[in-house]
Design a protein that fits this description.
Helix content: 40-55%
Number of strands: 10
Structural class: alpha/beta
Strand content: 5-15%
Distance between the termini: 51 Å
Bound molecules: ligand AN7
Shape: globular
Number of helices: 15
Length: about 350
Amino acid sequence: MSYRGLIEHYRKYLPVTDKTPVISLLEGNTPLIPAEKLAKAIGFPGKIFLKYEGLNPTGSFKDRGMTMAISKAVEDGSRAVICASTGNTSASAAAYAARAGIKCVVLIPEGKIALGKLSQALIHNAAVLSIDGNFDAALNLVKEMSQKYPLTLVNSLNPFRIEGQKTGAFEICDVLGQSPDYQFMPVGNAGNITAYWKGYREYASEFPAYGKPVMMGFQAAGSAPIVHGHPIEKPETIATAIRIGNPASWKSAEAARDESGGVIDTVTDDEILDAYKLLASLEGVFCEPASAASVAGLMKYSRNRFFDGKAGKSSSKTLKAVCILTGHGLKDPDRAISSVSKPVSVKSDLKAILKAIGL
Ligand code: AN7
């Protein structure tokens, strides 16, 4: 049977019933791309896989949580949803709300969301309110509004978001036939690390042989509240998706880290941009800057010889690391263009063109 979206595919692991109206854009089922050249280039002693979540319908992993959150909102009779967003949540909420025929209100930090994401929220006809505050301020406002008005909150504080997003872990296990040894991922509001860890735990209790990965989460150095152990009042990073100073799922992110024996650490903006450009040029995979924090983290730990002497849990003992590439590179075209050299202007003349490419 053809693929019918993640709710149908993983129905028995999700809190849905025959009465749940499934609002789906056939999200999930994203590729797990082997990255042999990357492993070689950074000296990783094993196999690297890229979970390319940018190939979801709105270009990010948020669609996994949003198909659940919007389906459950409609089941509960909600006519409007609301979220704060650094961009991707608003794009996804707007699309799924449009599909469900309900209203969507989004609060975004003025001037701090990538162009592609803004275009999505607008074209799907959400009420887009740009506030003179950051994501943390926007989240506080929408929390209050959802308590006082008939607006369903679809940020990851909504437990159905986490339920949908845990299916990323199921897909990885289904493809590898085991959980990876290490999972690298960006951490912003910390819903996704919470969701993946929940997914791995649930699959490991159903299929004990799969085991669980060590969870390696990365915050941008200028926006690293969990690493520093206190909220950051003015978070800064070029990775605007994870420009978050007071994550909602702080505690459960720490639990994922501690229960798995992992880390939540920082990567600098320069490290993020290096990983971003390397992935695109070496592997042909274009992700947004926040997503490249996962690969930047893997590069940092490879460089520091963290994997020396470590073996994988499969019978072959080959180490397997998965990096979650949470969003598509086209979300933030400005950053791509400002990170590399500009197009070369030439006359529309064969000789001039040949000369410009060195032929
Ligand atoms: C590409 O859209 O918070 O740690 O409002 O867009 O689960 O927050 C986005 C977060 C990583 C961090 N990568 O995930 C929002 C928002 C991308 C993202 C994260 C986000 P969480």
